[in-house]
Amino acid sequence: MDEQRRTRHGRSFGPVADSYDRARPSYPVDAVSWMVGSTPRRVLDLGAGTGALTRLLVAARHAVLAADPLPEMLGHLRRRSREATDTLRVVAAAAEQLPLRDHVVDAVTVAAAYHWFDEGRAVPELARVLRPGGTLAMVWNVRDETVPWVRRLSETIGHSADLPDPSGTLGLSGAFGPVEWARFRLYQPVDRAMLLDLVRSRSYVAVLPPAEREDVLTRVGQLYEHQRGDTLGLQLPYVTHCLRAVRLGRARLGEG
Predict the structure, then answer these.
(1) Which residues lie across from 137 on neighbouring strands?
(2) N or C terminus: which one in the chain shows less Cβ crowding within 10 Å?
């Protein structure tokens, strides 16, 4: 994605933050454990959005710093996380310039946000703030288009972007070990309103002219009613893709 398009699509999340917060799916608990382990750690959740992954990290007893460049998204994260004052801090920041000291976190997590980063600037920052031996972990939910109605949904709204593969960039940086991958299953219960919010929250729908966007939403509503039949709602299936890589180097005395 070129810089101009990345900026335009990235900023589109601000106006649809409410829909994003209501409708975006969470992540499997097993996936989170695979990414960062079960022992409490200091975690930077980067590109945290409205906090879907953040809340799972806090629930797993990690000390979390959640960072995102969009104040509209962070507003939802703060409201949903008011009780986690001892284990959660929130900061407005982008991956390319992190307001953190060197080697200060045990893990960096990125949930469905890496494709918005400028790799050339972001990867050195991720390496800088991670302690040697720490973990960089990423996760994406991808709609399971082997299911016929989900395939029709994607044909209506547009297919998800190709799954990013940062393996080459991380390897060339010299700061990270081999990338490991894992996959999990996730099913999201959706009613009509939630499915429409989910579609509204996609950047490639949010940037459409109003008339085109309303046409897409109308067709999605029709698809939902046709597929739902006599049931109360639908289960939207995802494949959750995860990766992790260890920060190379030797920890200095006093770190860890």
Answers:
(1) 109, 244
(2) C
Compute the average pLDDT of residues 142-158. Answer: 93
| Residue 11 within a domain | yes
Mean pLDDT of the 70-77 span: 88
Please name which of 230, 161, 233, 155 lies closest in space to residue 192, comparing C-alpha atoms. 233
**Which residues touch 50 (CB under 8 Å, ≥6 apart)?**
17, 20, 21, 24, 73, 76, 77, 80
Cite the beta strand spans of 124-246 per DSSP E: 130-143, 180-190, 234-246
Radius of gyration of the chain (CA): 19
Q: Confirm whether 219 is domain-assigned.
A: no
CATH code, domain carrying 18 = 3.40.50.150
Phi, psi of 140, rounded to the nearest 5 degrees: -140, 140
Range of the domain at 54: 3-143+161-187+235-246
Q: Judge whether 91 lies within some domain.
A: yes
How far apart CA 143 and CA 216 sit, in angstroms, is 18
When divided into structural domains, the chain yields a total of 1
pTM (global) more than 0.85: yes
Is the Cβ–Cβ distance between 44 and 107 less than 8 Å?
Answer: yes
CB 207 within 8 A of CB 11: no
Given a cut of 90, is residue 139 above it in pLDDT? Answer: yes
Q: Where is pLDDT greater, at 35 or 82?
A: 35
35 and 242 Cβ atoms separated by less than 8 Å: yes
Identify which of 74, 11, 2 has the alpha carbon closest to the alpha carbon of residue 203. 11
Query: What band does 4 get if pLDDT is binned at 50, 70 and 90?
Result: very low
Please give the order of strands across the beta sheet that includes 42-46. Answer: 88-92, 63-68, 42-46, 105-111, 130-143, 234-246, 180-190
